[in-house]
Amino acid sequence: MNKTPMTISGAEALKDELKHRKTQERTRITSDIAEARAHGDLKENAEYHAAREQQSFNEGRIADIESKLSNSEIIDVTKVSANGRVVFGSTVQLANAEDGGEVSYRIVGEDEADIKLGLVSVTSPIARALIGKNAGDFVVVVAPKGETEYEILAVEYK
User: Fold this and answer.
1) pTM of the predicted protein model
2) Which strands make up the sheet holding 146-156, listed edge to edge?
3) Nearest in space to 108 (alpha carbons), one of 1, 9, 2
4) Which among 3, 6, 14 has a CA at the least distance from the CA of 107?
5) Does 60 share its domain with 95?
6) Residue 34: which H helix or E strand, with range?
7) Which of 2, 34, 63, 77 is the most buried (most CB within 10 A)?
8) Which of 80, 81, 28, 67 is nearest to 51 (CA)?
9) Does 68 share its domain with 87?
């Protein structure tokens, strides 16, 4: 099975969520179920059914996180010697060739991506266009909204 790349910070975030769900959430949900049971008839007890639904969701998320962590290859970008090339985990400063507007993106695993935070998935059109390029190169990103040309201003490994 192919391993999915993940940054150290992404793996830590998943481990933190897993710990929280296994300790705090499980305890809270178990308590909610016990309290709802004390109210009597379980057939018409909405609190009981809601708590059981929360339990099901929580256990599903725990299984999902454990699967993602076991199938991931954690990459420490600070130890990668890419000689200025854009690689997984690198942070890339770009200038829009048309209007000069600057943006910065970090290339991360699919589960870590959050465009609002400047984190783009390694499988996204922009990451695919950038991988393997160097500072000073121009790239054309083909996305659903059309083509955009960028100049790579800087590549960092942090």
Assistant:
1) 0.79
2) 119-121, 102-108, 91-96, 146-156, 138-143
3) 9
4) 6
5) no
6) helix 26-37
7) 77
8) 28
9) no
- By CB atoms closer than 10 A (0-12, 13-18, 19+), residue 122 is buried
Considering its fold, how many domains does the chain have in total? 2
**Strand, coil or helix: what is 22?**
helix
Say yes or no: 22 and 71 in one domain.
yes
CB-based contact 122:110 (threshold 8 Å): yes
Single out the residue of 92, 93, 112 nearest to residue 101, CA to CA: 93
CATH number of the domain where residue 127 is located: 3.10.50.30
Query: Which runs of E-coded beta strand occur in the chain?
Result: 4-7, 72-75, 91-96, 102-108, 119-121, 138-143, 146-156
Q: Which residues span the domain enclosing 128?
A: 80-156
CB atoms closer than 10 angstroms to residue 120: 21
Contact 72, 4 (CB under 8 A): yes
